[in-house]
Amino acid sequence: MASAGDPFTHHALGPGLLAGARVVLLQLPKSLAELTEIAEQVAAHAADDVTLLAGGRVKHMTLAMNDVLASCFTLVQASRARQKSRLLVARGPRPPAAFSYPVTGEVSAPELAGPAGRETLTVVGHGAAFAGATLDVGTRFLLAQSARWPALTDPAVVDLGCGTGILATVAALRYPGARVVATDRSAAAVASAAATAAANGADVVVLRDDAGSTLPDASADLVLCNPPFHDRTALSTDAAHLMFATAGRVLREGGELWTVFNTPLRYRPALERLVGPTEHVAQNPKFTVTRSIRPSE
After folding, report:
1. Average pLDDT over residues 91-103
2. pLDDT single digits (tens) 124-143
3. Residue 184: which of 141, 129, 230 has the closest Cα?
4. Are residues 33 and 149 in the same domain?
5. Is position 118 within any domain?
6. Total tally of structural domains belonging to the chain
């Protein structure tokens, strides 16, 4: 979709985006899984004479990327490097017999169950979704502390940066009658989260939204957040700080933000500033879990 005055339209990866396309421009992703899903969709849905131009920084490119493209195209060539970047040019699409993504997996862990949940979930992951159809260790550690999540009746819960939607799905299953919203700026994450919730019979509203920017003020009782610390190939904490600011805005007075993050990032001062009083709940050799409470005005 496009906003007023926006010359661009946005489509999910698939025929609505690619049908009839003769040139496809792509910034090479870090993940081979993401590249595989994109290449398969281009080969299946673009024009027979499509040219895929995939560019990236030389230091981030691997021969495995050529192999991925060669599985979907008859001709793959690399350009000469220029200013430390180069192109991979692919032609002659070979549509796959079956798509590799999304993938579906069953994850089982006692941390999923919590006080009233269940130990097994079905997880759906598109190629670009973090951790795919698995339970990542950060989310697992946050869920391990969930016995201390607030006891709420029909709460409004937000999963910021939802990824494949595990936190949102668990919240919807544990809080019957809750209104659970999952947001992410990634189209792959949004599609994955919606599919994960549906696969588990969980009632979750999934929004494509950058750091929850469209969520209304003072609308949530509980926010769950496992923020990213990379922006493509670069280490970045910008997204996390945007999410913390959103949590401070959307939480009602007394509402709680539960966050897990890599311990060396030391987010507690930012959480204190952007949300409110913050308690150090748990720490292991890699991760820290905190609880921040939105204070009364």
Report:
1. 97
2. 999 999 999 999 999 999 99
3. 129
4. no
5. yes
6. 2
